[in-house]
């Protein structure tokens, strides 16, 4: 499981002032759970995700994944960003293969994984296209496949569908749900859309305005029902 224990985050600015972004956030996220996170702009959602990822060290508290305290980024946690995190000049296939190649896995094994994932996200016919040639929705499919190729235990999504038009977004919500169900991975999904948070989440976390504290938590039936 994933334990978030009394996380507080204060950013000290060069001018001597500071910003308290998070205040005493504690969560116990079960393996395989999909938790969506809502909260007003600036309440610390991205900061929380970056702390869980290990990109940022919290001022107080700790993140414990599978019994180990998180001290930096590693392949146990994968990130999917809103946009712009892909290698645009590389092909779809090369993007998805990037993590496995860095790990030094043999080509035959990697090819199998990459081919499979590209089919799963519906990009089987676009393997050799460069990422910049693709639509926004297709690029986010690449981002999902690239994340899964690293086989993380926890997938952290920072508004992955936020830049998409409504119709594409709806299709992609279905894909996120499908991937979550098929892989059984723990997913934390930040979104600005109440509808998306409710549709996709099993559990919904609402953060209060800055400094972000837990405002409310809800258990939701929808994702479980396969809406
Ligand atoms: P959200 O994702 O909910 O919009 P963020 O986590 O991005 O909120 O930011 C929370 C607060 O912390 C904001 O006031 C933001 O300006 C501040 N903040 C975030 N990152 C930094 C940073 N690296 N340095 C200084 N302040 C930051
Ligand atoms: P998505 O919902 O995946 O973003 P779009 O609605 O943008 O897809 O595009 C619909 C279909 O148009 C895609 O599934 C694909 O078959 C085709 N398409 C989109 N962009 C391209 C492209 N750059 N090259 C070839 N076909 C494309």
UniProtKB/TrEMBL annotation:
Record keywords, A-Z: ATP-binding, Cell inner membrane, Cell membrane, Membrane, Nucleotide-binding, Translocase, Transport
Domain of life of the native organism: Bacteria
Record's keyword annotation contains Glycoprotein: no
Molecular function as annotated in GO: ATP binding
Domain annotation ABC transporter: ranges: 2-227
Keyword ATP-binding: yes
Coiled coil: none
Family note: Belongs to the ABC transporter superfamily.
Protein name: ABC transporter ATP-binding protein
Originating organism: Pseudohalocynthiibacter aestuariivivens
Highest classification ranks of the organism: Bacteria, Pseudomonadati, Pseudomonadota, Alphaproteobacteria, Rhodobacterales
Included range, full protein: 3 to 229 of 268
């Amino acid at each position: 499981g994933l334990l978030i224990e009394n996380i507080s985050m204060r950013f000290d600015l060069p001018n001597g002032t500071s910003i308290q972004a998070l205040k005493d956030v504690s969560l116990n996220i079960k393996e395989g759970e999909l938790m969506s996170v809502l909260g007003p702009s600036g309440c610390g959602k991205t900061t929380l995700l970056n702390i869980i990822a290990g990109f940022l060290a919290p001022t107080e508290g700790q993140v414990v994944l599978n019994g180990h305290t998180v001290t930096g980024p590693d392949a146990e946690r994968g990130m999917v960003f809103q946009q712009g995190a892909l290698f645009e000049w590389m092909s779809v296939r090369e993007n998805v293969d990037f993590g496995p190649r860095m790990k030094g896995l043999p080509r035959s094994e990697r090819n199998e994984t990459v081919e499979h994932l590209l089919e799963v996200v519906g990009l089987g016919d676009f393997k050799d296209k460069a990422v910049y040639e693709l639509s926004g929705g297709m690029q986010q499919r690449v981002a999902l496949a690239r994340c899964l190729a690293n086989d993380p235990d926890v997938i952290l999504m920072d508004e992955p569908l936020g830049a998409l038009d409504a119709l594409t977004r709806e299709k992609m919500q279905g894909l996120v749900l499908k991937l979550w169900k098929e892989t059984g991975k723990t997913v934390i999904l930040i979104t600005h859309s109440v509808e998306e948070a409710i549709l996709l989440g099993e559990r919904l976390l609402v953060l209060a305005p800055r400094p972000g504290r837990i405002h409310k938590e809800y258990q939701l039936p929808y994702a479980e029902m396969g809406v």
